[in-house]
Design goal:
The chain has nine helices and 29 strands. It has helices spanning 2-37, 87-99, 165-169, 236-245, 262-267, 332-339, 403-416, 483-490, 492-496, and strands at 53-60, 66-71, 74-77, 105-107, 123-129, 134-143, 148-153, 159-162, 191-198, 201-207, 222-224, 232-233, 252-258, 275-284, 290-303, 308-317, 320-323, 326-331, 365-370, 373-379, 382-383, 389-391, 394-396, 399-401, 419-422, 437-442, 456-463, 468-473, 476-482.
């Protein structure tokens, strides 16, 4: 029994040795086969330095050959030196990257080169040196196991393989190396206006460094022109936020066409002039003469693949027109935020702004004409010797009125009954109805005679529809106010008579 166990143990040991040998043989065979395919011995693609490369060309299978040349220390498109290549981008992203590039390994005991796709190469790269050196690099088939392309280097016998770094810098679209100019900017030192146009609607921002006569507040430099009939004061801090958060952040994404044909411009939607951003300013020529300048950015068709609009710049300097040769892509979000500029987010929303102190004169008053009758508000405030208010005295139809009630009512008119909508289409203004309410401001102070609003300012409210009154100031109608709110506010007059 013991002898049988010993024989069995010897048999198991021998079997284990045989299995270990078989496994070792299998591993060795696998290793040898791997080494036959490639070795991890990377070598530099070129011995040229970046400073010694003066020409680059490459061509993808079935594609056009692209040529770059170093001229006067700047990289250019060799086929059109006016093409806006970004020399720095090409020098950094192609040339510098190329001279640092290495193969990923070499194929051992290679077969015929035709077996690796070199007869119909995927990519061919040619490098020219400043001393007349010429180097050629040919990429064949892609090997998924090696995660790279087979590579043939001109002048070398071996067959190498390389990752995707070379195909990454050999951009098939030369526009990937194109220069992208900055989105047009302005300086308030020379600015006159900024205008956006969208589908027939126009909004313009005017800049007056010394203010303007229509300023209701007395502190403004920014005003909205269109769609209003006269400049309306804008809140400075809000305009500055608009500049910081929107205008100063808009940039073109990419150059997509250089020297477009008329047919291409039409295809890009850049002949319709439906969406525009316009900067008008003063331009000083080299001679020192100052002339008008208008810079227009047209936004064309929307490209769904990139989520961008096409864009083009045209500049008028005096009577000279210069249309850019470049067509850019620009973010849809940026364009729609810019063109969606809503004056109601920035203007002071009072229909008109006249302080109660401006009628603190025996010959001055505010007359409210309503369906319930007329109400005349007078301010007979008394003052101390130092000019400070002594006592606020208000009269309605010559009867004393509660100070707080009058002031609350008046500030309701200014604030809560302010502009809610703009009338962009003036053809919709109602002309066949009498005003429901009229507010007439009489100011006796001589300084108001030359004021834009005049010594007498008349504001009328006429029913526009079931929700709004149209508000007119001295006959000019631009805006709508909430009908319900104004009705409720005017009812307060009856409680103070």
């Amino acid at each position: 029994m013991k002898k049988r166990k010993t024989k069995h143990l010897i048999f198991m040991v021998v079997l284990l040795v045989v299995l270990v040998g078989i496994l070792a043989g299998l591993k060795l065979t696998g290793k040898e086969k791997t080494e036959e395919q490639a070795t991890e011995t990377g070598i530099p693609l070129t011995e040229l330095t970046a400073a010694r490369i003066s020409g680059v060309s490459y061509q993808y299978q079935g594609g056009a050959e692209l040529h770059y040349v170093l001229k006067n220390k700047a990289w250019k498109n060799a086929d059109d030196e006016n093409f806006p290549i970004s020399s720095d981008a090409f020098a950094n992203n192609f040339v510098a990257a190329f001279v640092d590039m290495k193969t990923a390994g070499e194929v051992e005991a290679p077969q015929e080169s035709s077996q690796y796709g070199f007869d119909d190469p995927y990519l061919t790269v040619k490098i020219t040196g400043t001393q007349g050196e010429e180097e050629t690099f040919t990429l064949g088939d892609y090997n998924a196991m090696l995660k790279g392309y087979y590579l043939k280097i001109g002048g070398k016998e071996g067959i190498y393989y390389i990752g995707t770094d070379l195909t990454y810098i050999c951009r098939s679209d030369m526009y990937d190396y194109a220069k992208v100019e900055s989105f047009p900017t302005y300086s308030t030192d020379t600015l006159k206006s900024l205008t956006v146009q969208r589908d027939g609607q126009e909004v313009s921002l005017l800049y007056y460094p010394d203010g303007y006569k229509t300023d209701q507040i007395g502190l403004c430099k920014w005003f909205f022109g269109s769609p209003f009939s006269y400049p309306r004061s804008a809140e400075t801090n809000k305009i500055e936020e608009f500049e910081t958060n929107i205008l100063n952040k808009i940039q073109f994404v990419k150059l997509v066409n250089y020297k477009p044909t008329p047919e291409e411009l039409e295809a890009y939607g850049l002949t319709a002039e439906n969406r525009r951003y316009i900067i008008e300013d003063n331009y000083t020529k080299d001679s020192g003469a100052v002339t008008d300048r208008k810079t227009i950015v047209d936004f064309g068709a929307y490209d769904q693949d990139t989520d961008c609009y096409y864009a083009r710049i045209t500049t008028y300097t005096g009577i000279t027109k210069e249309a850019s040769d470049n067509i850019y892509l620009i973010s849809k979000a940026n364009v729609e935020t810019l063109l969606g500029l809503d004056p109601l987010n920035y203007v002071y929303k009072q229909v008109t702004y006249i302080k109660l102190s401006e009628i603190a004169d025996p010959a001055s008053d505010i007359t409210f004409t309503t369906p319930q009758g007329n109400y005349v508000l007078k301010n007979n405030t008394t003052f101390n010797e130092d000019g400070s208010e002594k006592e606020n005295i208000y009269l309605i139809n010559d009867q004393p009125a509660d100070e707080k009630s009058v002031e609350d009512f008046y500030y309701e008119i200014l604030a809560n009954c302010g502009m809610e909508q703009i009338i962009y289409d003036k053809s919709t203004i109602v002309t066949d109805k009498e005003p429901t309410y009229t507010i007439t401001y009489h100011r006796n102070n001589g300084s108001y005679t030359d004021n834009f609003y005049g010594a007498e300012t008349v504001v009328t409210y006429t029913e526009y529809n079931s929700n709004y009154y149209q508000a007119s100031v001295n006959g000019v109608t631009d805006v709508l106010v909430n009908k319900r709110v104004l009705d409720e506010t005017m009812e307060l007059l009856q409680q103070m008579k």
